[in-house]
Amino acid sequence: MSTDRLDKLEEFYEEDPDDRFTRFALAREHLKAGNTDQALAFFEELVETDPDYVGTYYHLGKLYEQLDRPDDALATYEQGIEVAREQGEQKALSELQDAKLKAEGIGFD
Q: What's the pTM value of the predicted model, to 2 decimals?
């Protein structure tokens, strides 16, 4: 992870803390850096404050899996699947369904 990139994203966040793309990017950068708590906080905040931002659900679900929180992962995938269906986001829907199946132990690798 680039410290410069994280610093720049932090600046953007300070300027506009409601920008969902900035919060999503911060979550991803913190995750890359191994800052799991910060990544989790940003992803969970995004799901709460901007539940229509479908890209969040896959990454939050995967993070829950890494944290050995399978029930939270499955619930997140299910919520994301619902949002993706409502928005007609077929690619996201497919990815979330696949992640859910794998998390349930029924997916194909």
A: 0.89
